[in-house]
Amino acid sequence: MDTNQRMKPASPARRAFVLAAVCLAALCMPLSFTGPAIAIPAIAADLHGTPLALAWITNAFMLSFGGCLMVAGALADRYGRKRVFLLGMGVFSAAALALSAAPGILWLDVLRAVQGLGCAMALSSGLAALAQEFDGSARARAFSLIGTAFGVGLAFGPFLAGTLITHTGWRAIFVATAAAGLAALLAAARAMRESRDPQAQGVDWPGALTFTGALSLFTYGLLQAPDSGWNSAASLGLFSAAALLLALFIRVERRAARPMLDLSLFRLPAFAGVQLLAAAPAFSFVVLLVLLPARFIGIEGYSALEAGRMMIALSAPMLVLPILAGMAAQRLAAAHICASGLLLAAGGLLWLSTCAPGQSPATLLGPLLLIGCGISLPWGLMDGLAISVVPVERAGMAAGIFNTTRVAGEGLALAIVSALLGTFTMAALGGAGLAGIGAEQAAPFLALGELRHAGALLPQAGAAELAQAYGAAFRHLLYVLASITTASALLILAFLRHPANAADAARDTAALPACKTPN
Known about the structure:
The chain is mainly alpha-helical. Helix content is about 80%, strand content about 0%. The protein contains 19 helices and no strands. The longest helix is centred in the C-terminal third of the chain and has 37 residues.
């Protein structure tokens, strides 16, 4: 039994403070993702840096965040949810303040990883603490507010970042997130009660280290492959090492008495389908939160503020449609709603592929709204599905796996898409008769939207010619994203055909003796 199940119910005012603290923490997370994406052009102009170093501004945060979620949850269960939440928000806020004064790209990348660690600690412990403060319908309302906070951050984060960059500079973004993080810390320090799981055991450090190592090496390999070559010794070495660590992770988890990741759950089609559902929005929505600002600012010539306004069309549906999807799920199968939403998003991606750089901003609004509407439908159902396909006693692990899959999947998707865009850009430059050493150096910058830097490396090419090459590369990338999203919709429909029976099947699986690899 959890310790705070024996506590007296908290007063409404105290619970409101706890909810406000966790909502503020939830708001910080999308702001920390979307804000720096808008700021990358300004950061590049101020601090310079290689394309790989600039890409790590986003990827370091996502990698650290996704790789540490399950470990942070285990630490919170053992040492106390309030303690870990306060520590996480303290680390996050301190890193954000340090980021506002970072003297160079290397410091920026390292501090972004630290910030991701703080986010992982705050999210895992905050949600667990919130679940203990609220019961029944009050808990459902509380978690819906958490989802709304995420939606607000996604919808208005780019606009807020653009406003701050325009009027005060990119460093103000990190000052603003630090202020929100400190407010969450103070609210939690006042109202959150300590709770822990008395049955919690030690952290599965071998599993955590091999998982994070495999994820890190694979991501690094993806990011540097367009520059060094997919068949280079460096790329093959990184991918091989990642595969080795992944195999070691699977072996460790099969042997562990209390594994970080219960691999037996993946025998259930519905559970596997939910993990696929967690990763699907990364390729149809999340990567666009990074790629589109780079295109708008660097290629289209928008200001940071104008780019932020354009991004509202993509994210604003997240404020309303997830709630409507939850209401519709009372009458329609969740699998059908999720698959339909993903297919709408795929249609929006194909529509967006027809919008070449230089067209009127109005031509972009329709496809952006369609993508946002499509992805909002599964977004409102994912968290509930994550725990509905397993027995209640395994809901905590299922939620941890789901959130790790979602965040780590977003980081991996961003790395994969960045690598693909760099490769497509190099091919487009070659197709335009610009192949050579200059093109090899210019392609990574052009893929990041650094049109001026690419032009300096390729003086024989005009800005219009470079923008056309970027447009061709971006179009081919959207074809790939639409194909992945369509395939995900069909697979999710197949895996989640009978979600009502999934929990019973999961309970039967859980009752089976644990299979361990012999020594």
